[in-house]
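Collaborator request, handled under Task 6.
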Amino acid sequence: MHQQKGIWSTGGFRRIMRGPRFIKSRETKTPQLKYGVSSMIQSQEKPDRVLIRIKDLTVEKADEVVWVRGRIHTSRAKGKQCFLVLRQQQFNIQALVAVGQHASKQMVKFAANINKESIVDVEGVVRKAHQKIGGCTQQDVELHVQRIYVISLAEPRLPLQLDDAVRPEVEGEEDGRATVNQDTRLDNRVIDLRTSTSQAIFCLQSGICQLFRETLIHKGFVEIQTPKIISAASEGGANVFTVSYFKSSAYLAQSPQLYKQMCICADFEKVFCIGPVFRAEDSNTHRHLTEFVGLDIEMAFNYHYHEVVDEIADTLVQIFKGLQERFQTEIQTVNKQFPCEPFKFLEPTLRLEYREAVAMLREAGVEMGDEEDLRYLGSTKMCQSLVKVVYDTDFYILDKYPLAVRPFYTMPDPVNPKNSNSYDMFMRGEEILSGAQRIHDPQLLTERAQHHGIDLEKIKAYIDSFRFGAPPHAGGGIGLERVTMLYLGLHNVRQTSMFPRDPKRLTP
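Structure tokens returned to the collaborator:
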């Protein structure tokens, strides 16, 4: 049997430890040995071997000899056989090592004692399964192993078990089986991210960014990058992180807002950006992070800011459609652990004025004033329930917020100066976008900044941007992690942040 030079160690014996036992394995000192521990891959050479993706192992490949790289998810020895489950991202396949022409007793014993989560290269024949294999994504085929080599050995004790980490909480409570709490997951995030659920979540999240970018480029937008180290609080507020900047201080940007507007004043007309946003808010809730990914849009319009609202709403609808079309496997994977009703939306998107939402809530028994912000009254969930009953949608827009609850750069409503040309967008009752028509007149902008008590000197460059002619424009910022969380019906934004940052977590 042909053996590539330099791939396998010729150093004699190496020991694989599993619990108290040591399994000796002679590495491929001779080309006939069909199992062992690989020497460390240091890019010595590029063998002509082709590794097949586990997700591509289907009945169409039956009887083919293939090479696969995967992790040992589980192993079970039974007499002269060993059943392995090999995992690769969210896909897995059963592999059989059986005493016979291609495997000795020692090889079966070796395979059975490889530590969970170790990475192996396996050569095997794809065989049709006699019956569907439960617990595997590749249910119609299995791999009959001819050779197996350990590429990277995992330590025998794992900080958490992946089977526990994907077990639905309800199932764990009913059956008395272990589940993994949030802190344990986040403390051992590298292991937690290997679960099929986490793999699906972040694959879908990547799809949201891709669809956002595709849709806006198709609409004629230009992608921009904005600075994250700035000289003044980007929204004139106090909730900013201060950093040392040579002999002075600087701040981490709360938003790319001001720079998006500057680009509009520079005649880019339609811009978007994807990047980190920092909020020094001591909010320990299920939906707040101190660092998250913002999907930001800004656009010049002709006569009415609803031109922009329509574009943003359509962009989100295109994302929802794209997720349904491209990521059904991922959605189903997440739903196995976290069951949820499919996300519903309307075309065109439902748009209610703020006063209509207040009236609905009052009718339902909620006491609130005309200018109170329902986002901070805990009323958005009730509003969602009412909207769902009446309109059967999980996505809607609230328009014409009270001016008193919006930032200084928000354009007042010309009909009712107590209102503003501003809007929020909601998914399953939680805000995912806040936006508005911006004030593009420097005199009015100065007056509104003074009204809010903002130091004009600190926003001088921003105000000056509008002194040389500025088109009317509007925009908004979307929280990527919230969109992912709410689309999938998850309950904590930390599940959709790869390495979350909140007031109590700065690692890993």
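The cover message to the collaborator said: "Residues 196-218 form the longest helix (23 residues). The chain has 14 helices and 19 strands. Please let us know whether this matches your experimental observations."
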